[in-house]
Amino acid sequence: VYWCFKMSTWFPEQPKAWYHKMCIRILEFGPIPKHVAVIMDGNRRFAVKNSMDRAEGHLKGFDKLTEVLEWCLDIGITEVTVYAFSIENFKRSKEEVDCLMELARKKFKRLMEEKDKIKEYGVCVRVLGNVSLLPSDIQEIIAEVVTFSKDNTRAILNVCFAYTSRDEMCTAMKEIAEGVSLGLIKDSDVSEALLEKSLYTGNSPNPDLLVRTSGEVRLSDFLLWQTAYSCLAFVKVLWPEFSRWHLYGCILHYQRNYQQLQRAKEQNEADQLRLQRESDYEIVAQEMDQSETKSLHTLAKQYANDRENRVNNFVQYLHEKRDKFFHDIATKSK
Ligand code: FPP
Ligand code: MG
Question: How remote is the CA of residue 315 from the centroid of ligand 1, in Å?
């Protein structure tokens, strides 16, 4: 089976039947999610159901991922984030962990062999997670893929690998604490917006829709922060059996709930802005001295401006640090 890992492509380019084109036209009358997150669950149950071994189940899972990516592009979904390997998955048997690592090793290698397609599709591949937990050769291949594709903008694929949401939040908090101690930001700059931008997903909008297959109805430590206002779709189908029809069903579910989700999201954005403004005023009022001639309003505006600059510079610094992490691994391996 491991031998088969080499074969299948990331770009299957399947022909689309006329009725699929028609369905897409109809769906396009409503809002289409731009960013979809997927928990690809049920590979092992699929393997048992079809008397295969686990490795083959995971391989079928990978092949399904490549198909789903095409379906998403067909429909106008330009960013997809998938849960490919959780930090919790390290607790599975050694045999299975090795199998998933081998699958990743072969597939990321294969992706680098398909460089022309990466360019043609204009896809940026990011790997989100605690990459240093992975074997060093996989880190190197991942770093190559990430650095090679980083400037592409037509489509984005985020592969969460060695990822859990709580680990991501802890990492972000450590970065922020370091930023405060280095004097890049002030402790009063710490806000929901700053934490959000410091996550691995910091340069993406939050997912509009999250899909989990296999009938499980939990998030399993995946994008807990980012899905606060996402539409959740739990589908009772094993991941390798997921079809275009299931995807259309999820989009309809998103469209039916769109207004309500949008209202909640906008309300939250307004609340966050108000809280930030109140905090700016409070800080300025506390620091203001008697002889100050400028109005509180002017000072608060100035303060907000400086705060935004500090935060943006810090976020930029974090992104550069992550780029450098991958860049260093990629150049070391050459
Ligand atoms: C969950 O099914 C699936 C996984 C833990 C692995 C998912 C990985 C892929 C589909 C391949 C991705 C590879 C790359 C290189 C991006 P499960 O094992 O939990 O199955 P079960 O729920 O039936 O037990
Ligand atoms: Mg599972």
Answer: 32
Task: Provide residues with CB under 6 Å of ligand 1.
Answer: 40-45, 58, 61-62, 65, 84, 89, 103-104, 107, 159, 214
209 DSSP β-pair partners: 36, 231
Q: Are 79 and 122 in contact (CB under 8 A)?
A: no
How far apart CA 105 and CA 247 sit, in angstroms, is 28
Of 96, 31, 42, the residue nearest 65 (C-alpha): 42
Tens-digit pLDDT profile for residues 99-148: 999 999 999 999 999 999 999 999 999 999 999 999 999 999 999 999 99
**CA torsion angle 112 114 116 118 (round to 10):** -70
Instruction: Compute, in angstroms, the gap from residue 188 CA to the centroid of ligand 1.
Output: 41
Q: Which ligand is nearest to the CA of 218?
A: 2
ipTM at complex level: 0.98
Mutational pocket test of ligand 1: of 44, 91, 160, the residue with most ligand atoms within 8 Å of the beta carbon: 44
Instruction: Read off the pTM.
Output: 0.96
